[in-house]
Amino acid sequence: MILTVLAAGPLQELDTHGHEYWARMLPPQAQHILQNVLDPIAGQTVCLPVLGVVAAVIAYRRRSWRPIICAAAAEAAFYIGVGGFKVLLARPAPTERDAEFFAGGLLKDGWHGISYPSGHAAEAVLIYGTVVYLIARYTGASRLLVRLLAAGVGVIALNAVAVSYTLGWHWASDLFAGLLTGGLLLRLLVWWDTDAIARERAERERAEERELIAMEHERTDDIAA
User: Fold this and answer.
1) Which residues contact 136 (CB under 8 A, 6 or more apart)?
2) Is residue 217's pLDDT more than 80?
3) Please, is 35 exposed, middle or buried when counting C-beta atoms within 10 Å of its C-beta (0-12, 13-18, 19+)?
4) What is the pTM of this model?
5) What is the pLDDT of residue 215?
6) Cβ–Cβ under 8 Å, residues 172 and 165
7) In 10 A of CB 60, how many CB atoms?
8) Which ranges constitute the DSSP H helices of the chain?
């Protein structure tokens, strides 16, 4: 929220002065790698299949729908949370040469009219973060492996920010807002799933307790008879 208020005011001048299509200063081969190899890593075409495969494998091994439900919730959170902010705030991308909020819009400028927060930056944290959460929560992965995977998410997030900024596709505040939004949504997802697991466990324990009480009553009745 604070970053959004700053981006709508004081940070606009920094966004404007700090923006440049830096990739144009690089050799064509480097531009190609940035745009077609590094940038898609945080996009739906890569991160969504990764999430889907991990969730499906874990769900099959655990004989549980929860990993798939978590994956679906993460994707829904991205479209509703990040997508909703994008449409609501309607900030044009640098291609429109305007950093003002509510100056763009999906209908007016298409995808170039909804740049805040950055979708790639948010996906890097939210979608890949969900992958790590599923592995940590629903498998026997070691703490070392989980930490390495979490570090990998950090690398992917930094890659998303650096590549998008170098290509000039986002204002700087768009990218930082994307990281924060993705992190917030991931936090909410983990809380929701953890709470659901706790409630299911508590309900199962209550059911077992009721069953034991019923069995004890039956045993008492048999003795009395």
Assistant:
1) 146, 149
2) no
3) middle
4) 0.87
5) 65
6) yes
7) 11
8) 2-7, 11-18, 28-33, 44-62, 66-77, 83-89, 106-109, 119-138, 143-167, 172-224
Tokens of 63: 């004989």
Rounded to an integer, what distance in angstroms lies between the CA atom of residue 83 and that of residue 196?
A: 25
Q: Can you give the pLDDT at residue 57?
A: 97
Task: Write the DSSP string, 101-112.
Answer: TTS--HHHHGGG
Determine the pLDDT at residue 212: 66
Paired tokens of 8: 């709508």
192, 26 in Cβ contact below 8 A? no
- Dihedral sign, Cα of residue 34, residue 36, residue 38, residue 44: positive
Residue 223 class from Cβ within 10 Å (0-12 exposed, 13-18 middle, 19+ buried)?
exposed
> How far is Cα 42 from Cα 169, in angstroms, rounded to an integer?
14
Residue 118 to residue 65: CA distance in whole angstroms: 30
Q: How far is CA 114 from CA 60, 73, 106, 139, 184, in A?
A: 38, 23, 6, 38, 20
Give the model confidence (pLDDT) of 57-88 as tens digits. Answer: 999 999 999 999 999 999 999 999 999 999 99
70-74, 139-143, 220-224: segment of lowest average pLDDT: 220-224
Bond preceding residue 117 cis, omega within 30 of 0: yes
